[in-house]
Amino acid sequence: MIYLYKDLEKKGLSDYQIKKLVSDNQLHMIKKGVYSDKEDYNYLEYISKKHPNAILTLQTACYCYGLINEAIIPYTVATKQKDRKIIDDQIKQIFMTDSLYEIGMKNVKYLGFNVKIYDLERLLIEIVRNKKNIDFDIYFMIIKGYQKISKLLNTNKINEYLLHFKDPKIEYRIKKEIFKCI
After folding, report:
1. From CA 68, how far away is CA 12, in angstroms rounded?
2. pTM
């Protein structure tokens, strides 16, 4: 499990006790102010603890949903437009317009820890919106994954979400590539 320094303080640990746990290898410092009780930790858990407003999106969210079988680093997260820039080589931050930021966002338990992630319907819109920024083979794999689960997607939710996006090409691509309606 990953802990922030302030979480450890809330548990009643002093700075000295935290440093002692680190020196005794009972606690491992990941980065300044972030600790893990295991040497081997999941970076997505680190992201969710260190950056609680970051929402997993694009290839990172596709990996969590099993639409692709390999994590792509840097991990991609969405934040509000005016959020502080995340300085981390393993994280790609997308600044999302505030009005679009929370649409389709949900909190889920992933591998035993909580993450913020876009639901499958919103994620589909993000994938199609960012088609040019995604490697062709990865995009093709994601689309194939969506085609397999297309009957599970909530089309009403997709249509509701699409009302917030101005580009008519998004709806056209979704109908053509996922539902093969056109």
Report:
1. 42
2. 0.93
Where residue 41 falls (left for φ over 0; alpha for ψ -120 to 50; beta otherwise) is beta
Helix (H), strand (E) at residue 117: strand 113-118
Tokens of 8: 């450890």
Can you say whether the dihedral through the CA atoms of 27, 29, 34, 39 is positive or negative?
negative
* Domain coordinates in residue numbering, the chain: 1-41, 42-177
Q: Between the CA of residue 129 and those of 29, 93, 122, 169, what are the distances in Å?
A: 38, 16, 10, 9
- Helices marked H in 130-154 — which ranges? 136-148
Distance CA 150, CA 114 (A): 26
Strand partners for 39: none
Pairing state between β 105-110 and 34-36: unpaired
* 20 half-sphere exposure, CB direction, 13 A CA radius: 5
Place of tokens 């997308």: 94
pLDDT tens digits along 55-97: 999 999 999 999 999 999 999 999 999 999 999 999 999 999 9
